[in-house]
Amino acid sequence: MQATLLGILGLALLGTLHAQDSIPVQTDFQQDKFTGRWYSVGLASNSNWFKEKRHLMKMCTTIISTTAEGNLEVTSTYPKGDQCMTRNSLYIKTEQPGRFSYTSPRWGSKHNIHVVDTNYEEYALVATQISKGTGSSTMVLLYSRTKELSPERLEMFTQFSREQGLTDDEILILPQTDKCMADAA
């Protein structure tokens, strides 16, 4: 019985590790080109908070900068009700360029972040595996240097999100807004 349980746990761990390895990372990732202002144009997730808040979500502005240690400081400004909220996150670099880790101080969740694909000047596709004591979830973000992206880029985001196991009702092209956009200069 105990050997069977250990075998099942081992397979579950291997499945988790394989899922993280199956998310690609941008070849020859150049962190200095990744920094600057981005707009969050698309968001996909199978997390409970996304399902609960999806109808309230709007496009937000994200500023990415490199710290002295080579990590990423990520500052997102987004509308919440009639206010502008700001969230700061520190993405810790890993041995693999384009891959970062983050632990939420508020929720204790661990985030395994992959910059999947970017041309640095137009779009960036970022996938995150999130694990918490209660389970795991996947999140895919589509960033753009402008508030609009071509239908081809939006389709690429949708297709990649589906490949990560997300369903159409878990994929959202964020509604544009001018609210809170000027605050994140």
UniProtKB/TrEMBL annotation:
GO CC annotation, single: perinuclear region of cytoplasm
Lipid metabolism among keywords: yes
PROSITE patterns on file: LIPOCALIN
GO MF annotation: an example: prostaglandin-D synthase activity
One GO biological process term: mast cell degranulation
InterPro entries: Calycin, Lipocalin, Lipocalin_CS, Lipocln_cytosolic_FA-bd_dom
Domain Lipocalin/cytosolic fatty-acid binding: 35-178
CDD domains given in the database record: lipocalin_L-PGDS
EC number of the protein: 5.3.99.2
Endpoints of the signal sequence: 1-19
Localization annotation: Cytoplasm, Perinuclear region; Golgi apparatus; Nucleus membrane; Rough endoplasmic reticulum
Catalytic activity: prostaglandin H2 = prostaglandin D2
Family matches, as Gene3D superfamilies: 2.40.128.20
Family that this chain belongs to: Belongs to the calycin superfamily. Lipocalin family.
Complex formation: Monomer.
Descriptive protein name: Prostaglandin-H2 D-isomerase
Taxonomic classification: Eukaryota, Metazoa, Chordata, Craniata, Vertebrata
Gene name for this UniProt entry: Lipo
